[in-house]
Structures are given as C-alpha cells and as structure tokens.
Structure of MerR family transcriptional regulator:
Amino acid sequence: MSYSVGQVAGFAGVTVRTLHHYDDIGLLAPGERSHAGHRRYSDADLDRLQQILFYRELGFPLDEVAALLDDPAADPRAHLRRQHELLSARIEKLQKMAAAVEQAMEARSMGINLTPEEKFEVFGDFDPDQYEEEVKERWGDTDAYRQSKEKTATYTKEDWQRIQDEADELTRRFVALMEAGEPADSEGAMDAAEDHRQGIARNHYDCGYEMHTCLGEMYVSDERFTRNIDAAKPGLAAYMRDAILANAVRHTP
C-alpha cells in the first residue's frame, strides 16, 4: 500500500512543502511514483519519516539526521548523549526563568523601577512586566496592590536582586525538605512557610495568615503557578500549599 504526499502530510502533521524539501535533499525519497509522476510513500517510508521527526523534535539538524539514518557506522547513542547535554542546559535556564515568574505573579510586576538593562541583569530573559495588566485587573482595587505599588516604586536594582536571592534560597529550602522526606506540617516546613509569608509582607504588602493561605491555594489552582513552582521540583507547589496551611493553623488561636 502507498500514500500520496498529501496523505502523508496529514498523517505526520507536517506540510507538503516539508516533504518535498526532504525529497529534494535526499533525506526522504518516496519509494514509488504514480504513472503521472506523483510521489507515493510506502510503509517503510513512513517509518523513516517517523525517525526523522523524532530527531528533529530533539533539535538535530537535517544533515545529522541523514547521517544517523544512512551511515551504518554512526552511533545514535553518542548523538543522543550530546543532545541530552544541550537539553539539560536549556532545562536549567527555563527553571531559573520559572522561579522569576512565580515572584512576578506575586506582585513583582507592580512598579518595577529598573532600566531594561537592569531588568535583564536581575531577571535574565524573563520580563517581569508581562503580567502587569493581569495583576492590575485582578487586584488593582485592593490594599495589597496599593501597598505593593508604593513599596516597589522606590526599589533599586539591588533591592530586586536581594528579593530574587531570597526567593531562590527559600525555594532551595523547600526542595531540601521535600527530598529529606520532611512532611509539609513538620516544623522545618512550617518555618519555611512563615519565612515566605514574612518575605511577602516585608517586600510587597501586608500578608496575614488568611491571605497567605489564599496564595497557597492559588499555587495549585492556577496551572501557571503550579507549572512555574514545580519546575524546581515536581510536587513543590502542593507541598508549599500544605506547609502554608499548616503554618496558618499553627498560628491560629
């Protein structure tokens, strides 16, 4: 059985132009031609296309994909190891950006008084202003928003760097507690939650235990918070939420 170029494009989720290009460079030449000269792809061709798309998804350039598929002496494991190193470096960079997102959505975007160069130095590729409109729409009429605007309007680059460093250290504490098997209602976890609450109050706005508990719930109910926090360690958002709740209970008469 054979398939037309249009059918194969539909199967694989690629464009007809892509398949024509693969044919032109010899990466995927269809095994058959119709009487009219149109490309026809066999099951074996589809298997090769699947391999091509796999390597392309990992970021391999087309010439390396061809070498992997056509050179019997090529070692796919060596190529994959190299690509794994590149992907690991990208993941580490994304995790750092994710940690910055969590801080931005807690009001960091409210009034950052930095030049573009200073923002880049503190936050890297992440732009903390991108959530300003959403933050203003959701909390613009609250005392917390007004307090945060007033405080952060005077912050310097050094202030934001200190806040970033504090957040990073707190994340490391929570991760270490999780990895040590400490339950979320342990003294260590509740102490970390209390430091988290006090950091918000110190740097942004008054954050009582009720508000802090609401923040903890948002960490697991808003997938953006969950995704960003869990970038440091899967399950961290729920662990922080539970520690925040336990700490609130501990301080409730």
Notes: The mean pLDDT is 80. The two ends are 75 Å apart (CA to CA). The beta strands are 3-4, 32-33, 39-41.
